[in-house]
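Async update (no meeting this week)

Hi team, since we skipped the sync, here's where things stand on the single-chain job. The sequence we agreed to prioritize is pasted below, unchanged from the tracker. I ran it this morning and attached the output directly underneath so nobody has to dig for it. Comments welcome in thread, and please keep replies under the output.
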Amino acid sequence: MTENDLDVGVADFEHAVLEESNTRPVVVDFWAPWCGPCKSLKPILEKLAAEYGGKFRLAKINSDDNQELATRYGVRGIPSVKAFINGEPVDEFSGALPEAEVRAFLDRLLPGPADEMRAQAAELRDAGDVSGALQKLAEASRLDPDHVGIRLDATEIMLDLGEADEARRLIGNLPDDADPRVPKVRARLQFMGEAGEDQAALDARVAVNENDLEARLKLANLHVAAGQYEAGMDQLLEIIRRDRAFEDDIGRKTLLTVFDLLGGSELVSQYRRKLASALH
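Output:
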């Protein structure tokens, strides 16, 4: 057993598979001792794990001993191989494939030149160099024009900059199931469309009249569209505190929409508590 090829169970699955998949792909092989095809596939996976030298991790799970994991990930027959990236299953196959097909499966998971440029763009964005990040994403897109992740990265930057038209062009007609971020980006675009005014004008309105709930609602939409979720939710809470009935309880309803957008994060838990406090 090595760092790149190991047996995994329920106790260490989160660390060995989900957390590790944030840094490199993790290929999970669900097998059982009595399974004949498993005995053909397992040596192929182990050989390739050694050959690829750490580009991916092979995690082998005895499905008989770890039925909870098998059930959680919908394993109906074995061998069942599932690939994880960033904590989520992204690809899979069942049965004992020949080595060439397993190699092709692995190669689809591993980053190519466009993915490396995308990672460089993320570093530039984190460092505050937005124009550099966009330039690097444009280079990556020329290498791989159909790369959904690259398009979404650029779309998110455009939303952060308030460039709704360009964001809308970039996301185009991508289906919602193309990437988990697609529905979230579309939701942010919708929030931006409902803002209607720039932030300076809306801030001025609230400064003149703290009970200008229409301005607060537009500010909330603007903040959420720009990814400034806490600022947006604070405005929505203020609407609820000042006038729960405003526009048919729009403050609470919009806040719930933001919760859906953000998913099960700690930030959502925090603001759910704030909402409960505001309502009582």
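Quick observations from my side:
The chain has a mean pLDDT of 92.
The first strand starts at residue 5 and ends at 7.
Reply here if anything looks off.
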